[in-house]
Write a structure and sequence with these properties.
By secondary structure, the chain is α+β, with helices and mostly antiparallel strands. The chain has one domain. The protein is built from 3 helices and 7 strands. It has a 5-stranded antiparallel β-sheet with strand order 1-7-6-5-4, covered by helices on one side. A two-stranded antiparallel ribbon has the order 2-3. The chain is flat.
Length: 114
Amino acid sequence: MGLRGRLGLLVVVAWLSLPAHADALRCGGGTVEEGDSRVSLLQKCGRPQLQDSFCAPVFQNKSLVPVPEPFASNAVPCQQIDDWIYDRGRGNLMATVRIRSGTVQSIRIQRQPR
């Protein structure tokens, strides 16, 4: 295999290892789309197999004044972001649903079956 063939193979392997962005997720109870509520996601897909949460800072303007600890944690508001991972069974692709402020922000489908 020449250099061009190896480079092409490398590109394909790298592409397959990345998660795919999806607009919808099909579950037993229906289809979930970006913009749906967390409640709708729970009703249609049930509880996720794994959950991860973090707080992303929300910046009001570009001229933030530094605030010393212990007050800094109260000075910068944050928005809770949840990543819910659904293992949809053997032969199906895993899905990660990102929820921001109670709304489905994005749906990512793993490209390779487990």
